[in-house]
């Protein structure tokens, strides 16, 4: 793959619509108007399945089990360290690889080479992680998993505003959310079937990731960015491009902040789920408990995501769905806080799924409508994805503080609810999307 390096003018509109014909040399930057095919959407969904299995199988089960095998009394601190370091890598990797994919002039398209390369790197790192016997090696390999998986995720996320017209984005966002949820469920299934053998679990996650990208790569519909369409690559300008002025693009800033807050609340609810089931609910097999709760959550996410996304397309409104779903996520955390029993956990998982499914579908569509420039879709979606990754740094630290110093799991879940509700409040600040 190569990066565009020949100077040429490009005139994007203030709304991010490229001033080029859809069949011209800069077709990769044109605002999409043709609906994408079911085959393309299927490939997109499967990539999301694989990436999220690689993310959440380890986060929800395998890293915790590996931490117990290394030093059980320090398991919470080890889990928090590993997930926080990996998320710190993703903070840089997602916008960086998104920006690099924006300028990639490969004959296979802008996004596809990074989907493939990222998946291969993450899979190799997962295999290496399976044999890590120290905290240092476990953290190192998890950071490499995050590096590769975020390269693939940045590219596949940017493919949506590249190829999907606005009236179809709620539907596609809902299906992408379904893919994310299936990936989370797949990771939980792996955690249950390997019966504590986290080494086998990592191998299963690696295989799932590699297989998941193949259908998209064979039917990628990824237009080539020709040399000369974008200005010459200059490192200083490239780095300065990662700052998007909240004053100039306030809707983008508010959308980023609300996504960050809602994801912090969601991460706080689930980050210690394995330990909550093991230590508070006294589950004999907490990995199976994670699978049951994840299954309930997944079913509700898929139902609400595939319903809310197209519904928001039909009514032409996004914000009411985002506000309502954010409040529902906060309600799930309160259920876990005040009903710390198995039926309460089941109810909390269902409510969390209802809220997060609608949120994932509609907020994703909203975000694609506030991107500043067509030429920077990958970079800008990568910056948006930081709002998904940064909570993985913030939430483990908050969770450790809440469980250790602030009164335990009840304080943890109440904190999650308050932060999630703030996300619902700030959505009203977005002006350009109804």
What structural category arises from helix and sheet content? mainly alpha
What's the overall average pLDDT, rounded?
85
- Which percent bin holds the helix content? over 70%
CATH class: Mainly Alpha
H/I helix tally: 14
Radius of gyration: 21 Å
Number of domains: 1
- Largest sheet composition: none
Write the layout of secondary structure elements.
Elements: H1 38-71, H2 75-102, H3 112-129, H4 135-163, H5 169-193, H6 198-218, H7 235-240, H8 250-270, H9 273-280, H10 286-315, H11 319-338, H12 342-368, H13 377-405, H14 409-426
Tell me what the structure shows.
- The protein has one domain (33-221, 244-429): Up-down Bundle (Growth Hormone, Chain: A).
- Helix content is 72%, strand content 0%.
- The protein has helices at 38-71, 75-102, 112-129, 135-163, 169-193, 198-218, 235-240, 250-270, 273-280, 286-315, 319-338, 342-368, 377-405, 409-426.
- Helix 4 (135-163) packs across helix 13 and helix 8 packs parallel to helix 13.
- The two termini are 39 Å apart.
Question: Tags for this entry?
Answer:
434 residues
Describe the structure concisely.
The protein is an all-alpha fold.
